[in-house]
Amino acid sequence: MNVIKLALAVSTLFLIIQSGTPVEQASISDAPTYTSDGNLVPPMQYRQWIYLSSGLDMSYTPPQSTPSHSAFDNVFVNPSAYRSFLATGTWPDKTTLVLERRAAENPVSINKSGHTQAVGIAGLELHVKDRGTWSFYNVTSETSAKLIPRPADCYTCHEQHAAVDTTFVQFYPTLLPLATRDHTLSSAYLREITPPTAPQSAK
Ligand code: HEC
Question: Which of 140, 151, 154, 193 has its CA 20 to 30 A from that of 108?
Fold first, then answer.
């Protein structure tokens, strides 16, 4: 192979790599994979994915009393789905979102007020969009995550209150402006944030 042919081959290779759409990249690198018995293989490298937000002591009912134990949840997403969201304001197929729960601790080391996150993981849940359908999984070991079958309150709450495509983008500060820009906010969420219009007075 002479030098010109080699240069052509290399530049063609770069073109092929660069032309991959986010969805194609997802299926190569960070798409969901399943075990032979139908469970999901948990993406245990999710700490190298994109960080979206942390909630502290989130509760969906008005607080009755001070919570007896305090917890953080941290949300991550696979990089190819995140890149796709940056361009479109919504999630492509092969999106995996991870909710990691950790106890909030105080006092630890030099910290005297406020809270830091525990080393041990208290819970790991996944929200996966595959072949157009969203499913929840509970990570039960490093090698297996079990499907949470419908009906379950997970599906009801996410479908009725989440801002984009059944995910809680209203709490992910880097994503909410993009969904607003691209008009991908769900009608359920828009109804919740829009005050009811006053009845028109007859003239
Ligand atoms: C009453 C409402 C409600 C219910 C029920 C609920 N969630 Fe969520 N979920 C939320 C909220 C709010 C967030 C945003 C968390 C944050 O901002 O840290 C969230 C975020 C998540 C995420 C991160 C990705 C996303 O979709 O935004 C996962 C994964 C998740 N929940 C799994 C579950 C599972 C599994 C269940 C059922 C066992 C469940 N949830 C039940 C309200 C709910």
Answer: 140
